[in-house]
Amino acid sequence: MNARSVPPHLTEGCAEIPILRERGQREVFCGLTGIIWLHRKIQDAFFLVVGSRTCAHLIQSAAGVMIFAEPRFATAIIDERDLAGLADANAELDRVVQRLIERRPDIKLLFLVGSCPSEVIKLDLSRAAARLSRSFSPDVRVLNYSGSGIETTFTQGEDACLASMVPGLPAQADTAHPALLIVGTLADVVEDQMRRLFNEMGIAPVAFFPPRRAADLPPLGPGTRFLLAQPFLADTARALEQRGAIRLDAPFPLGAEGTTLWLQAAADAWDIDAATFHRATAPGRERAQLALARQRDQLAGQRVFFFPDSQLEIPLARFLARELGMQLVEVGTPYLHRQHLATELALLPAGTMLSEGQHVEKQLDRCRAAAPDLVVCGLGLANPLEAEGLTTKWSIELVFTPIQGYEQAADLAELFARPLVRRTWLAA
């Protein structure tokens, strides 16, 4: 491996420190929320939630869909007759899907998304998906995954969705030459930027998963090397590795440093020389560093507390501490995958307080006692904490917003600076 791939101070971080593991009441969205960014990415897919009216209201509220809009998601309502066993839920589901496909002939990939209610009545959506896929093949493929909020956090909806697609990826024809696969939903503009950087380095072929069109499934096999673009894709990564693909270990592409190290992992796997790598990445890196310097004046020295919510917390904490000079009071995350986050943990400041899981009352007590300058948390906690005088940042906004890559580094920093600026204005 090229020496330039080794991040500075790898042995000085938090890779080996104890982690506070908590189990108790949680405050998170359910996995259905992932539909909001997935349906924008896969442009000919449709997400049919099999759930209750509460599920429908959640998705509509999270997406902000107006009454005249026609998004690529909907809810097949499970009502009292279904719960009581007075109706054949499978027959009703078949009728709903038939009407949906007749009305929307543009659908090429249909996801049946499980929910808490569908799991309560033991509705076998995997069997339903197989049956419907046979009925509508080859025009429409039908897959299923669970978006249930039982023992999950909201970003795991994307993980479950992508994992359900892996068995359908075609086998890689040429395993003698490596191919790069970028795994995780990225905004189209970010994907285009990343593709240009890989092209300038001479790395090819490069594919992105999920694709923009359902038919453009990337080939997969022992010649595939993949980079995770999101830290919450444990099941997807496992499924890819079972098909022979090899994960490239790297931090996540947040900020100038994280993006450089992420790109560097691919460059090392392709034996790209240092001069070519520098020529491709230096302009973007320098623009990002210059833009971040302006945000650093606002954020340096500010103390931040992360509640566990999105699984983005550790890469975000690394970015805030190393590139913007913020002080980490506590970094909580719902799940901590040590293997996928090894390089991120090593880059955190020594002595960082890490917690995994959630006991919301205990964490609230620690947060109040610490009185941080900024609290990153879910919507359910933000308003009460604001009422107590704490300044908050909605963690879900960090998933909905393009934040990966050089060109988005300043936008990411601004998401944290904005609440502090607002507090200054209100105090004036």
In short:
The protein is of the alpha/beta class and 428 residues long. It is 44% helix and 16% strand.
Folded structure, characterized:
The protein is an alpha/beta fold. It has 3 domains: 9-26 and 285-427, Rossmann fold, CATH 3.40.50.1980; 31-152, 3-Layer(aba) Sandwich (Rossmann fold); 179-275, Nitrogenase molybdenum iron protein domain (Rossmann fold). It is 44% helix and 16% strand. The protein has a 6-stranded parallel β-sheet, with helices on both faces. Mean pLDDT is 90; it is low at 1-11.
Strand-helix topology:
Blueprint: E1 20-23, H1 35-41, E2 45-51, H2 53-63, E3 73-77, H3 80-83, H4 89-103, E4 109-114, H5 116-120, H6 125-136, E5 141-146, H7 156-165, E6 179-183, H8 188-201, E7 206-209, E8 224-228, H9 234-242, E9 246-247, H10 255-269, H11 274-299, E10 303-306, H12 313-324, E11 327-333, H13 342-347, E12 354-358, H14 360-370, E13 374-377, H15 379-387, E14 392-394, H16 397-400, H17 409-427
Parallel strand pairs: 1-12, 2-3, 2-4, 4-5, 6-7, 6-8, 8-9, 10-11, 10-13, 11-12, 13-14
Helix pairs in contact: 7-9, 8-11, 10-11, 11-17
